[in-house]
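Pipeline run #58 for the internal structure catalog. This entry was flagged by the ingest filter as a single-chain record with no existing model, so it goes straight to prediction. Upstream metadata was stripped on purpose; only the residue string is passed forward. Reviewer on rotation: M.T. Logging verbosity set to normal.
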Amino acid sequence: MNRLLTINLGRTRYGDAWGLQKKFFSARLACRIPDVLLLTEHEPVYTLGKGANANHLLANDVELIEKNIDVFNIDRGGDVTFHGPGQLVGYPILDLNNYYLDIHRYLRDIEEVLIRTTQDFGIGARRSDGLTGVWVKNEKIAAIGVKVSRWITMHGFAFNVNTDLSYFDRIIPCGIFNKGVTSLQALKGKDVAMADVVNSVIHNFESVFSVAAETVEPMAHQPLDELLSELLSGKHPGETLIVEEKVS
C-alpha cells in the first residue's frame, strides 16, 4: 500500500502554495519523498488554466485591487476559477506509476473522493456528463483541474465548504454559462467545521486510492520551504522518510 503524507498548510497565498507544489513535485520525481496531499485555504485569488478564456474573468483591474484579489495564469487544465477562505483546496502530488497510467481515471477518482465527502455531510452529489467536477443538482460544489507530467500529478481540487460564493459572480466558473455554484454552508444552512471536512477528505482519499495516510503537522508560522527541507531530511517530528528506489 502506498504511503500518503497529508499536510494542512492553513491559510496561504496562492503564489506561495504554487511555488511549494513545484518543489514537492521535483522531490517526488526524484523519489525523495512519498506521495503527498497538500491541503490549504487560499487568500482570494482567480486562477486561469491553460485553456482559459480571459473574457471569462469579468472583474476589472479596479475591482481586483479594491478587493485585494490576486490573479494567476497557471499550467493546470481548465478555465477560470476562484479560490478563497472557507474553501478546502487539495493538491495531490502523486506518482501515478504506482497506481495506473490513466489521467481520466485519476480525475474520476478525485471526483469520487469529493462525492463521498459531500455524502458524509448528508448531501447527495454526482458527476455531470461531459464535465469535470462534482455537482449537487445543477450547481458545482467542487472544481478539479490538474497537471500531470512524467506521471507525477500537480494542482487538484477546490471544495466549497463555507466559501463566499459572491466571488463567483465576477467570473464564468470553468467557462460554464448555464450552471451555478454552491457550498456545504449554503446547502446545510449553517457553517460546517473545516476540520471535519478535512478528516472526511483524508478518509475518502485513503479509501478511493488505497493509500495509508500519515499526517504531518507544520509548526506554527513555519516557513513553507523550511517544512519541505525538514521532510527531505527526515527531521520533521514523527516522520522518518524512506527514499524510494524507482523500479523501471
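catalog note: The chain is about 30% helix and 30% strand.
catalog note: The two ends are 18 Å apart (CA to CA).
status: ready for reviewer M.T.
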